[in-house]
Amino acid sequence: MTDFPLAPGSTLGILGGGQLGRMLALAAARLGLDCVVLTPDPDSPASRVVKQTFVAPYDDPAALAAFAAACDVVTYEFENVPAQCVDALIALGALVAPGPQALSAAQDRVAEKTFLNGAGAATVAFASIDHWEAIGPAAQGLGYPALLKTRREGYDGKGQIWIEKSGDEAEAFAAIGSRPAILEARADFVRELSVIAARGRDGEIAIYPLGENHHENGVLRRTTAPAPADQATLEQAERIAAQIMAGLDYVGVMGVELFQLADGQLLVNEIAPRVHNSGHWTQDGCAVDQFEQHVRAVAGWPLGSTAVMARVEMLNLLGDEVEAWPRLAADPDSRLHLYGKRETVAGRKMGHVNRMRGPV
Ligand SMILES: Nc1ncnc2c1ncn2[C@@H]1O[C@H](COP(=O)(O)OP(=O)(O)O)[C@@H](O)[C@H]1O
Ligand SMILES: [Mg+2]
Q1: Could you point out which of 116, 205, 223, 348 has its C-alpha 20 to 30 Å from the C-alpha of 239?
Q2: pLDDT confidence of 224, banded at 50, 70, 90?
Q3: Does position 156 have pLDDT exceeding 90, yes or no?
Q4: 139-163 as b/e, with b when 16 or more CB fall inside 10 Å?
């Protein structure tokens, strides 16, 4: 039996070796916890800051057994780990948080929106699409333009295409790989917000103030936080986050992406059952950041304070923008976070900078 709270010296397992895993491991280290990572990448960003990396495919039985044996608790840093991987770890006796319920809700956009609506969180209207011929009738109902997205494995705007008019269906379906899809009504939003929230093993919740997000080509470019918002909006966001987490019996940090409509209503775009890019501002803006908060939650510790210490603008460093690091490092108002990726690829998230915008 695992005793919670996990004592310092215990081991947190992380599925995935990207920058989120790296920043989780750094936060865990501060609390005296060790981390091990399972990733197929032999030279991942997380692997260079953890005790041990198991380099193997996520479905490798021997690696899963060794990984499970090394961990007191297991979490993940991206939501596309195969469900079978988590099931196998649970069968091996591992404690996985957030649980498989959250993972399956987040992996499939149709299941996600169905769950959200059932939990009382409104979304855009949508239709499940299995064949291109279903797109036309669905778009008639949802209105043009409508957004066609793959049900699974989309990220950073990949696997999405707008259906502008009748006649575009076959080509659009082929363009997203002729895979099971969702067709979404266009959200006529005035701004995109997100709320980063956490739920502990005892059901305690902690919610950060809203971030306002600006995307370019489907990729997050910058977040400003705390976003100006009236009390009703804050309460609406908190209620939504709390209902979603309660509905999933959630343990950990969750990112909830929101569309704010002109009348103030918040629609949920999607949920991420993990720390989230739009929560990176908390590293330099809040008493306890989202990474430490996630570690605290899964380790059964009390949740930390979400108090805001400073206003922050978080900018992602995409591709060769990272080459500005000497200038950013010299700027007294910038806090630089680099991911240690070996290869600079156009559009790839290489790091981020938190620009300090003064006291709250
Ligand atoms: N139904 C929609 N209406 C309008 N814009 C949308 C809609 N869905 C997504 N978007 C835009 O595309 C971005 C990426 O879509 P999202 O569903 O969050 O996919 P990803 O998983 O790639 O982040 C959103 O942040 C938003 O700017
Ligand atoms: Mg998104």
Answers
A1: 223
A2: very high
A3: no
A4: beebeeebbbbbbbebebeebbbeb
Q: Which ligand is nearest to the CA of 184?
A: 1
In tens, the pLDDT along 1-50 reads 689 999 999 999 999 999 999 999 999 999 999 999 999 999 999 999 99
What atom in ligand 1 is closest to the CA of residue 185? 1
Output DSSP code: residue 210: P
At residue 242, the pLDDT reads 98
Q: Which residue ranges make up each domain of the chain?
A: 11-96, 125-185, 189-356
Q: Which residues pair with 315 in a beta bridge?
A: 222, 353
328-344 pLDDT per residue, tens: 999 999 999 999 999 99
User: Does domain 11-96 correspond to CATH entry 3.40.50.20?
Assistant: yes
Q: Smallest Cα–Cα separation from 81: which of 61, 63, 106?
A: 106
Fold of 125-185: Dna Ligase; domain 1 (3.30.1490)
Same topology, domains 11-96 and 125-185? Answer is no
SS3 state at 140:
helix
- Give CA–CA dist 339/352, Å, rounded: 8
- Pick the residue whose CA is nearest to atom 1 on ligand 1: 186
pLDDT digits over 202-214, tens only? Answer: 999 999 999 999 9
Which of 123, 269, 270, 276 to mutate for ligand 1's pocket (most ligand atoms within 8 Å of CB)? 269
This model's pTM is above 0.90: yes
Atom of ligand 1 nearest to the CA of 257: 18
Cα–Cα nearest to 346, from 255, 216, 257, 224? 216
**Closest to 353 (Cα-Cα) out of 344, 326, 342, 341:** 326
Pocket residues: Cβ below 6 A from ligand 1: 124, 147, 154-157, 184, 186-187, 192, 215, 218, 257, 269-270
CATH architecture under which domain 189-356 falls: 2-Layer Sandwich (3.30)
Unique residue bearing structure tokens 């977040």: 223
DSSP string, 303-334: PPP--B-S-EEEEEEEGGGGGGHHHHHH-TTE
